[in-house]
Amino acid sequence: MSSTSNAWILTYILLSLPVHFTISAAVHPIPINGTCHDTCGTMPVKYPFGSGFGCGHPDFSRYVRCNSDTLEFSTGTGIYNISEIDYTTGSLIITDPFMSTCSSMQNSGSFSLDRASPFSLTGENIFVLLGCSTNSPLFDPAEDLCAMGSRSRVCRGLYSCKGVTGIGLPQNAPPSTCCVYESPIQLAGYTLDLPKLQCSSYTSVYSFGGSEGDPVKWKFGISLQYNGSYYSNLCKDCESSGGLCGFAGFDQSFACICRSGKNTSTSCFGQGYTWSGTRESKIQTKLSFGGILLLWLVLSI
């Protein structure tokens, strides 16, 4: 073989190698910041919720997050702990640390639920306003803001608690300063403005615990329903491959996040070596040694 032919073969090899390296590098998924987890402390975290930024669905990420092993729910009026999630019914329970209960009553802040959020109040909630001024608009007969039929039963139950002294009322005080404020079913967007309503505190009872006459057994918290229509076949495929559904990029497009902490736009199947870097290294090594071997053969002719 002539030296001219050798030169042409050598030129072809040198031009081909970078192309192989470029193709090999292109199979790398795009990494995201942090790693998604399927638990937050002892609480299971499933789609559409996520354990951190880039995890779950972007419409939920601004409201739900994992902070120091505690799953939290944020609104314009505060940050609340999520105590329960029922993924089969699409509901969750949040607790306000300043909300009154039978064992402890204190001055509370207001509560609001963003109308644009994918959450709504359920019909299980019974909001109770405590220590209200007799001049409160709640007691305006023309407004009919209080559920008068159940006020006596619920209010007397709460006012029988020893904790009522925390808002400056004696135990078993008359229920004239208490209002049961039941929320409509599936109410999206809600504001409970205590200063405007001239009340000291509020609580929410979502279950009587099988004993309506014993407020110690009542379950206190705010029951919310979330929109479960975000779950898609794309997410199901991702989860079946061992990944967690999330989002990435400026457009917050779907991303399947694998246990390596990197993502793809589909699923984690068939990507194991690439994500760990092992397969990438093997491809490059074979190409490098193959090129050197071929170059040695050419120069030896």
UniProtKB/TrEMBL annotation:
Query: What do the Gene Ontology cellular component annotations say?
Result: membrane
Q: What range(s) does the Wall-associated receptor kinase galacturonan-binding domain occupy?
A: 36-96
> Which terms does the record give in the GO molecular function aspect?
polysaccharide binding
Endpoints of the signal sequence:
1-24
Please give the superkingdom of this protein's source. Eukaryota
Does the entry feature the keyword Transmembrane helix, yes or no? Answer: no
Q: Which keywords does UniProt give here?
A: Signal
Q: Where in the cell is it found?
A: Membrane
Main localization category: membrane
Record's bilayer topology term:
Single-pass membrane protein
Q: What is this protein called?
A: Wall-associated receptor kinase galacturonan-binding domain-containing protein
Which source organism?
Populus trichocarpa
